[in-house]
Amino acid sequence: MKKLLTIDDESDFTDLIAGYFGQRGYKVFKANSGEAGLVIAKKEKPDICLIDIKMPGMHGDEVLKEILLFRPDAKCIVIAASEGQGKTRSHMLALGAVAYFEKPLHSLRDLEKTIERAISR
Questions:
Q1: Which of 21, 67, 82, 100 has the fewest CB within 10 Å, making it most exposed?
Q2: Is the domain covering 3-93 a CATH 3.40.50.12160 domain?
Q3: Domain map of the chain by residue range?
Q4: Is 72 helix (H, G, I), strand (E, B) or coil?
Q5: Per-residue pLDDT for 88 more than 90?
Q6: Better-predicted residue by pLDDT, 106 or 47
Q7: Residue 7 exposed, middle or buried by CB count within 10 Å (0-12, 13-18, 19+)
Q8: Whole-angstrom Cα distance, residue 18 to residue 4?
Q9: 81 pLDDT exceeds 90?
Q10: What pLDDT does residue 63 have?
């Protein structure tokens, strides 16, 4: 069973992700801060990490770097509200994210396809 960790300070969003991917056979873990996400990531070693950028406390780029330090094979996907997204997108991809999505997500199916491609690499 593939493990997915969603890290976002909006619990409605993490609940949506958990419901969608839980029904598709993923074991889903939710964290509402970067710090909590790192604790779960170290313990559960998820295959996929969905990371928001702007969160109270630890910023998403720090979370991404930390996860990839101890789990270099994790596939990290950034899902963030647009904020000068061109620069942010290229920065997050340069740090090691495999994909970048803007909120609001228009299709969970597109996200699912991206995750499936990332896992099969």
A1: 82
A2: no
A3: 3-93
A4: coil
A5: no
A6: 47
A7: buried
A8: 9
A9: no
A10: 97
The pLDDT score that the predictor gives to residue 83 is 63
57 closest CA partner among 84, 79, 39: 39
Tokens 């699912």 appear where?
A: 112
CA distance 19 to 63: 23
pLDDT at 95 over 70: yes
Q: How distant, in Å, are the alpha carbons of 41, 96, 112, 113 from that of 33?
A: 12, 20, 23, 26
Contacts of 91 by beta carbon, 8 Å cutoff, 6+ apart: 61
Cα 49 to Cα 86: distance, rounded to the nearest angstrom: 21
CA distances from 67 to 6, 23, 24, 97, 109 (A): 13, 25, 24, 11, 25
